[in-house]
């Protein structure tokens, strides 16, 4: 059995906090597929979907992420701990996510 998504989400929140940002869990009643987290790091706000290494976006998530992007929002999906680490590297160096998807080809065990 692999890592549970909530473990990756906790790791993600801890890493965002470590670089001076904050996260908020996002639930939008009546709207399926919204990203898991709102990330606030001055001066920006991003939306992030957190998945396990081998997780997949549902059709509703793909649709909602596209809607958000079409309206100017930055939406990224991180896959597993290594995806979180790659996202954090972009945040440290560029103060914004550069990719829609943070996933590598190797499994990152914790």
Would you kindly provide a written description of the structure presented here, covering whatever features stand out?
By secondary structure, the protein is α/β, with parallel strands linked by helices. The protein has a single domain, classed as Trna Endonuclease, Chain: A, domain 1, CATH 3.40.1350.10. The chain has three helices and five strands; from the N terminus they run αβββαβαβ. It has helices at residues 5-18, 59-70, 80-94; strands spanning 22-25, 37-41, 44-51, 75-79, 101-102. A hairpin with a 2-residue loop joins strand 2 and strand 3.
Question: How are the secondary structure elements laid out?
Answer:
Blueprint: H1 5-18, E1 22-25, E2 37-41, E3 44-51, H2 59-70, E4 75-79, H3 80-94, E5 101-102
Parallel strand pairs: 3-4, 4-5
Antiparallel strand pairs: 1-2, 2-3
Helix pairs in contact: 1-3
Task: Give structural attributes.
single chain, 110 residues, alpha/beta, Trna Endonuclease, Chain: A, domain 1, five-stranded mixed sheet, globular
Approximately how much helix is present in the residues? 25-40%
Question: Count of helical segments?
Answer: 3
Could you give the order of strands across the largest sheet? 1-2-3-4-5
Task: Please name the CATH topology.
Answer: Trna Endonuclease, Chain: A, domain 1
Give average pLDDT, whole number: 91
- Strand coverage percent: 15-25%
Q: What's the CATH class label?
A: Alpha Beta
Sheet with the most strands, sense and barrel status = 5 strands, mixed
Span of the ends, CA to CA: 13 Å
Structural class: alpha/beta
Q: Please provide the count of β strands.
A: 5
Please indicate the count of domains.
Answer: 1
In N-to-C order, the SSE pattern is HEEEHEHE
Q: Which CATH architecture? A: 3-Layer(aba) Sandwich
Principal-axes geometry comes out as globular
Give the low-pLDDT segments.
none
What's the alpha carbon Rg, rounded to whole Å? Answer: 13 Å
């Amino acid at each position: 059995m692999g890592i549970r998504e909530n473990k990756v989400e906790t790791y993600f929140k801890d890493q965002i906090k470590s670089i001076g940002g904050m996260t908020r869990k996002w639930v939008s009643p009546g709207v399926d597929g919204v990203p898991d987290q709102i990330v606030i790091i001055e001066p920006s706000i991003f939306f992030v979907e957190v998945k396990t290494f081998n997780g997949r976006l549902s059709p509703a998530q793909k649709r909602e992420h596209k809607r958000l992007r079409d309206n100017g929002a930055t939406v990224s999906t991180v896959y597993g701990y290594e995806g979180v680490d790659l996202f954090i590297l972009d945040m440290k160096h560029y103060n914004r996510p550069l990719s829609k998807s943070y996933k590598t080809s190797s499994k990152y065990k914790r």
